[in-house]
Design a protein that fits this description.
By secondary structure, the chain is an alpha/beta fold. It has two domains: about 130 residues, NAD(P)-binding Rossmann-like Domain (Rossmann fold); about 60 residues, Regulator of K+ conductance, C-terminal domain (Alpha-Beta Plaits), CATH 3.30.70.1450. The chain contains six helices and eleven strands. Strands 3-2-1-4-5-6 form a six-stranded parallel β-sheet, with helices on both faces. It has a five-stranded antiparallel β-sheet with strand order 7-8-11-9-10, with no helix packed on it. Helix 1 links the parallel strand 1 and strand 2. The longest helix is centred in the middle third of the chain and has 14 residues. The protein is elongated. The two termini are about 20 Å apart.
């Protein structure tokens, strides 16, 4: 997969390393060329010096082929602008913006923009949000410790029950949308083809949920 990172600070450089280790293609943008020194001499990705919300700079970085973009500069405004350009203009499938102002984060969440707060989220959580496409994060509770996510029921779970996907204290199915109706399931509710699952999951259990839904 191809990912763009805007901002080569500690988080940006760390995220680039995690994604490259996972075998992904990474391009990182920063207005200060000296910031790329944080990547080390063995960095195998692409570095682009420029403003992270400049469309030509983004095109040069390969945004038109990108599967995801993370805007993690020190500026909330720059991160939001870059994220909205990526999502609304270039239609990048997965976009994450880091915001320091919690009040702004809540506003942008309501607009459908996935945001993270540095006090409650880490490098690996940003990588999770970019990579794990089976899950659609709808809302984060508290400092990001609990997420509400949507996932289509995989074929391997059709005919099984809510109990089979429940992990006490980690993963709970809050509701199921079936056709034009949404229902509150019991542990014995049987999954049907086409079900959309609404789940509450600990941020630390995201990988486990991905494995369970295949």
């Amino acid at each position: 997969m191809k990912f763009l990172i805007i901002g080569c600070g500690r988080v940006g450089a760390g995220l680039a390393a995690v994604l490259l280790t996972g075998g992904h293609n990474v391009s990182i943008v920063d207005r200060d060329p000296s910031a790329f020194e944080k990547l080390g001499g063995k960095f195998k990705g692409e570095t682009i010096a420029g403003i992270g919300f400049d469309r030509e700079v983004l095109r040069k970085a390969g945004i038109e082929r990108a599967d995801g973009l993370a805007a993690v500069t020190a500026s909330d405004e720059a991160n939001v602008v870059a994220a909205r350009i990526a999502r609304d203009i270039f239609r990048v499938p997965r976009v994450v913006a880091r915001l320091y102002d919690i009040r702004q984060a809540e506003i942008y969440k309501r607009l459908g923009l996935q945001t993270i707060a540095p006090t409650g989220w880490g490098i690996h959580r940003i990588a999770d949000l970019l990579i794990y496409s089976p899950l659609d994060t709808v809302f984060s509770i508290g400092r990001g410790d609990v997420e509400l996510v949507d996932a289509e029921v995989p074929s391997l779970l059709v005919g099984k029950t809510v109990r089979d996907l429940t992990v006490i204290g980690e993963i709970h199915i809050v509701a199921i949308t079936r056709g034009n109706k949404t229902l509150l399931p019991t542990l014995g509710t049987i999954f049907q083809e086409g079900d959309l699952l609404h789940l509450a999951v600990l941020a630390t259990s995201t990988n486990r949920l991905v494995e369970l839904v295949g």
